[in-house]
Amino acid sequence: ITTPLFHSHGIKVAFAAALSKGSAIAIARKFSASKFWNEARKFNATCFNYVGEICRYLYNQPPKSDDADNPIVKIVGNGLRPDIWLDFKERFNIQEIREFYGATEDFVPNFANIHNLDKTCGVCLTPYAIVRYDLEKDQPFRNERGRMKKVKKGEVGLLLGQITDPDNFYMYKDEKATEKKVFRDALRKGDMYINTGDLLRDIGFGHVQFVDRLGDTFRWKGENVSTEEVESVINASEEIDMCSVYGVLVPHTEGRAGMVSVHKKSDEDFDFKGFVNYLKKYLPNYAIPKFIRFIDGFDFTATHKIQKVKLKKEGYNINEINDTLYSLLPNSDEYVLLTKDIYNGILEGKYQF
Length: 353
Prior knowledge:
Elements: H1 8-21, H2 36-42, E1 47-51, H3 52-59, E2 74-78, H4 82-91, E3 96-101, E4 111-112, E5 123-124, E6 128-131, E7 133-134, E8 139-140, E9 156-162, H5 175-179, E10 182-184, E11 192-204, E12 207-213, E13 217-220, E14 223-226, H6 227-235, E15 240-248, E16 257-264, H7 272-282, E17 291-294, H8 309-314, E18 324-327, E19 336-337, H9 340-347
């Protein structure tokens, strides 16, 4: 079990499954990516639960000749990114990846990959809709009749769960707080949907892929930028151990520019030119971070997710940050050290991002 037992993922997904079949469990005081496979071999574990970060940490470990020599047959969880799915499966000789999407609240759609297909959260048996979302206005699109519109195959939108029993629906003791999570007259008059706050991609045949949380997606140059998609590209870079991407405000511009905090794999000099070329190869220009912050380590939640709140708040303010910062200035092909002169120039609007 890779997550704490006080979290629903650990107690409901992992522990409950083991309990129902009379299986043994192994749980460490702290998850360690470097020790994980040796621990799996030691206890002859055949299955483990995961969140996406767990798989990414394991994937980012230096490859070993015995990576595939382990007893794990099946993994179950959510958040395994499509960009590493097949490589992860082959490298560690995983036979079954049971990805799912869900929540504990009533009427939130729950998807399950019951057929062991690749790169999908699976299918859902309860009514739901994935609708177009306007990130600038922070609300779903509605047409002239006030109705939302479902996305087409391959498109990303906001996931809604239909509330089929309105009389028994509640989320919070505060009715006003509950009402904020509800959309009425969404697709037709009189209907009710719960807002999951998650962006998913409709990949057809009733299957979906998780893309991002609404708060982690930002808009820049008229385009939607998914932090998870940018992170997946940067984390695959040879020089990067781990990263966190978020949007930051730049004076005299619309939207938010991309910024990434990174932890390097080594203390060697960073190849900025090679890094820019790598980003241009795999990301559209609007998604390339305009600021880089090099840090010694991240703070994590109990489920191994990077805490972004403080990073977002600090942004690229060199007056509050002791870490080294770099910026990709307009019409430049290389990141430059963010000095006080450049920082003040950005605040004054001298650089046309």
